[in-house]
Each structure stands twice: as C-alpha cells, then as structure tokens.
Design goal:
seven-stranded mixed β-sheet; two-stranded antiparallel ribbon; 44% helix; 21% strand
Length: 317
Amino acid sequence: MQLDMQYVYEIYKQGSFSKAAEKLFISQPALSMAVQKVEKSIGMPLFNRSTRPISLTDAGEIYIRAIEKQRFLEQDTALQLEDIRALKTGHITIAGTHYLNAYILSDIITGFHQEFPYITIDLVENASAKNLELLQKQDIDMTFSCDPEVLPYYSGYPAFSDEIMLAVPASASVNADVRNYALSAEDIIKRKNLKEDCPVISLDSFKNEDFILLKEENNLYLRSMALCHEYAFEPKVILKLAQLVTAYHLAERGFAASFISDLVVKNPDAALCFYKIDSIHTFRRFYLLIPKQRYISNAVQAFIEYMQDYFAVRQTR
C-alpha cells in the first residue's frame, strides 16, 4: 500500500492527527502536509477537522473504502503466494502418450496427489511428437521423451528406462525352434529380462514372421525398424497402430508378433512368448522435459522431486 494511503488510514483508525503521527513515527506537521497533498490531488477534504475525534467526509469514506479494498487484495495476494510456497495450491499440466499415462504416470500422479492434495493436475494424452510441439509452445509444463536428438533443446530430468522385447503369440510355430530363449509373462513381471544370465537371441530367427508395428511418428516404430535393419531384413508388417498397448493385446490374441515395452506386461498368464533381442536399440532411457530457461514453479519442482524419489525407490526393489 502506498505511503500516503497508510497515513490516511492510520488517521482514520486513531481519530487524531497527533495519535496517528506517534504511531507512524513522524511529526504531526509532516503528517498534515502529506494528507493535504492527497486532498489537493483529489480536490476535496478527506477529514472533517472540526469534530473530536475527527470524522470522515463523504470523499473520505470513499477513499477509506478504496484503501480497505487494496489492503484486502494485498493480504489475499500474500496468502496465495504463501500457499504456493507451502504447496497448498498450484497447477501442473503434464502431457504423455497412452503408454506413459496408463503404465508409468498413473501411480506417480496418484501418490503425488495424496502428498500434495491442493495442487491440481491436467493430464493430456497425445502422440509424443504432438506433446513436444505443445511443450515448445509452452502450452504444457512437462512431457517425456527417450529421443536423444530431442533432449538438447529442453531441460531434462532422468525418469525411467524400459526394454523393448519381441512378443510372439504362444501359438506361433517359431517358438518351438527357439524355446530355450523364450521368457514367459511371469518372467518379465519378475524382471528376469534384466538379469545378466537372461538368454539373448538374434532377430534373424523371426524375419519370416508377421509383425504389428506402431505408426511412423512413434519412437517405438523407429526402434523397431532399426532393429530389423540391424539384422538386414524388412519386417513383414500386416498392421500399423497408434497405441503400443493395442499392439500388445493383439499380439496376445495371436494376431502377429510385436515389439513391446517390458513395462506393459502385467498379466502373468498372457499367451505370449517374449524374447530379449541382442541389440543396443532395445534400451530406452526416458527423461522428463521442461522448457529451457523457464521459471520452474514450486508445484512443478515438487513433482520433479517426487518423480525422482519414486523411481529411485523403485530401482532399489
């Protein structure tokens, strides 16, 4: 609140120039001159000086109400800012793919909401390319990516990793030829694919199989093609889909083989055989991305820290 407003308001509260001057630690003549300056600027007196205690004129009443509105606004602003500092309020917009939202973020967002119930979250679902476009425009606060070419353009925070496995319908005849390399869904759930002694197979064994791939704009499509080209063959693609999870379920129904993330395997009875492929393209490291040189709100910072703690605990299990 401006100094002259403070002077006028203190006189109003004390009902006296002399008492107000004592409270404000200034001389009475200085206080009188400050009030006269305000009265001159508005063209009418604020106080009726002939009464004891002094009273407000009509103009003074309006002026005091205006002061009180400003005081309330300042107090409310201070409380809101303190709430943000104390994480009693805030807002975050997160964009992810269906895979990220359903299989990675659901537990994190639930736990974060329990710890910070006053921070609201909008969860947006798009293809990864669209999410990066929204982040570039700063229409969202954060998204995720495992594309190393994207990372230099944003501030990145390590989040989680997954492994690309080949999921082959259990009914496929090729499984009989490579049975010593096959992993069950229960093996994947127990993370046996990450053990040093997990059998690794060449993709050559599957070059004659039918494949379900994701669409071209998806990172998993690029990696799937890189895997096949590494083994010098073009996959026989009989279906392209937008969603990893849909491809996984179609493979489980016996439609065709598909490259999938090990993190989507939740049902131990899934009718699939899983294979760990010998290639550097199967490992993906995901980062949480936010725009560079952008102010990081307390709510966003709290989410980043919660996410990092979540994955740190998960990796020790």
